[in-house]
Amino acid sequence: MTQAPTPTADTVRRLVRSLLREGTDTAAGPDVRPVGGAAEPATWWVGTRHVLRLAPDAEATVRQRRELRVRDLVRPHLPMAVPTSVAHGEWAPGLTCTLDTKVPGGSGEEHDVSALGEADLAGLLTGLREVPPRQAEALGVPRTAPRSLEALRRAAGQAAERLDAADEFDAARLRQLTPPAAGQLAAQPGGAVLVHHGLTGEHLVVSADGRVRGVLGWADTVIGDPAEDIAG
């Protein structure tokens, strides 16, 4: 197993110069700073226009290589930006990295999505349905089975009964969702599409007016039930 070294600002600057083929001069190089407060950060801001992402292990390397291909596949189908890799390579033996363009905007964890932003998300889901699943599978995107709604219904029923006993929820409301009704809501055969599979606030780039301007984090994409992205 490849043991990843601890990335530092100096090693990141040298790596960026190497990726951009700017030579080995002794200039200070670009301003780099880790994203977040991790002790061994895998994501770094590079100046004001780029983001460097380092795969920390062999599994992440496989996912990152696939992610680069998936982003190119989905980009023409989506109404918002998907990061572009301006350079990529290895930052340690057997471990990949990619220097991506920064998508302007803020995190979806910090900015509310407006009504127009919800329309953007609808456009995202529509666009993903237009991506041919066979093309995605040819890139190595795995296919996953949909969740069992009956299993979820039973688990929710048990929770509802406990809340009912505590006078916090009327369990009779959930009892209206019978097994046959849950079966009608289940994913239909042949309904599998490309699914982002991580469509949460941290992967949305949202502008000040609440529009969704970009979608990040394509490493966990699968062919599966689109309800997973709707739930996200």
Task: Provide the descriptors you would attach to this structure in a database record.
232 residues, alpha+beta, Phosphorylase Kinase, domain 1, Transferase(Phosphotransferase), domain 1, 5-stranded antiparallel beta sheet, 3-stranded antiparallel beta sheet, 18% strand, elongated
Topology readout:
Layout: H1 9-19, E1 32-34, E2 43-46, E3 50-54, H2 58-74, E4 85-92, E5 95-101, E6 106-107, H3 115-130, H4 133-138, H5 149-165, H6 171-175, H7 179-185, E7 193-195, E8 204-206, E9 212-215, E10 222-224, H8 227-231
Antiparallel strand pairs: 1-2, 2-3, 3-5, 4-5, 6-8, 7-10, 8-9
The helix/strand class is: alpha+beta
What's the oligomerization state? single chain
**Total strands:** 10
Just name the CATH architecture of the largest domain: 2-Layer Sandwich
User: Averaging pLDDT over every residue, what do you get?
Assistant: 90
Q: Rg from C-alpha positions?
A: 21 Å
How many structurally independent domains?
A: 3
Fourth-level CATH superfamily of the largest domain: Phosphorylase Kinase, domain 1
Tell me the series of helices and strands, N- to C-terminal. Answer: HEEEHEEEHHHHHEEEEH
Count every helix, treating DSSP H or I runs of 4 or more residues as helices: 8
Widest sheet: strand ordering: 1-2-3-5-4
Which CATH class of the largest domain applies here? Alpha Beta
What can you tell me about this protein's structure?
This protein has 3 domains: 9-101, Phosphorylase Kinase, domain 1, CATH 3.30.200.20; 106-145 and 188-231, Orthogonal Bundle (Transferase(Phosphotransferase), domain 1); 149-185, no CATH class. Helices cover 36% and strands 18% of the residues. The chain contains 8 helices and 10 strands. It starts with 8 loop residues before the first helix and ends with a helix. The model has no long low-confidence stretch (mean pLDDT 90).
